[in-house]
Amino acid sequence: MTPSEEERPVAQLLVVEDDERIRTSVVRALRERGHVVRTAATAMEGLRTAVEDRPDLVVLDLGLPDMDGGELLRMLRAVSTVPVVVATARDDDDAVVAALDAGADDYVLKPFRADHLEARIRAVLRRARGDADTAPTVVTVGPLTIDLPGRRVTLAGRPVELTPKEFDLLAYLAARPGTVVSKRELLAEVWQLPYGGPDKTVDVHLSWLRRKLGESGGAPRLLQTVRGVGVRLAGPEDDDLEPEP
Ligand code: CA
Prior knowledge:
Blueprint lengths: L11 E5 L3 H13 L3 E5 L2 H11 L3 E5 L7 H11 L4 E6 L3 H9 L4 E5 L3 H19 L5 E4 L2 E4 L4 E4 L2 E2 L4 H11 L6 E2 H8 L10 H12 L10 E4 L3 E4 L12
Parallel strand pairs: 1-2, 1-3, 3-4, 4-5
Antiparallel strand pairs: 6-7, 7-8, 8-9, 10-12, 11-12
Helix pairs in contact: 2-3, 6-8
């Protein structure tokens, strides 16, 4: 799949990564895709560069030598709303949840493919730029169409009847397609409830919603649970939803 040039926003990116090999290959891959890339090898350098250079997006390694990446994220959030995609080791669910709760916009697990990271970056940028203009009112993901102001949902052209809470949950995910949202965030934003440890509210509504969308937890396509982290609505980058052109 080769998206056309106009679908490909060239962005100023900051990559904060202490591992030189990873940094070099990520930078090369992102530059090949037309982005302007700066780098930082430590948290403090990353924080300074993020504040001074005002990049469009920061790719942040959570394991940095001088400071935990999550700590850096909290410091950065105190002074900047720059979109952040965190990169972390595969066995690090707690760190991912903490990073999402601290304001990361998305994450990739190491080792990641450069095209996967770039797809995440594009999705986050599109969302950030969309928020700046007007938020989309109709979201289409594969066969699913969600009319946000009209509170109407169709699947392959057929209406789907949802309860108000199911719609609110889907709408919250649809406002950020392709992005993982933690259950803590859903509970806070959709239900206005504080997170109180193990809570089945979100899981139960997700399973009802999934059934109405004609899929099961074992074979998700549109609603994808990321175990230990949260859930995402498939995004436009999920090219398995639609046949290749
Ligand atoms: Ca590292």
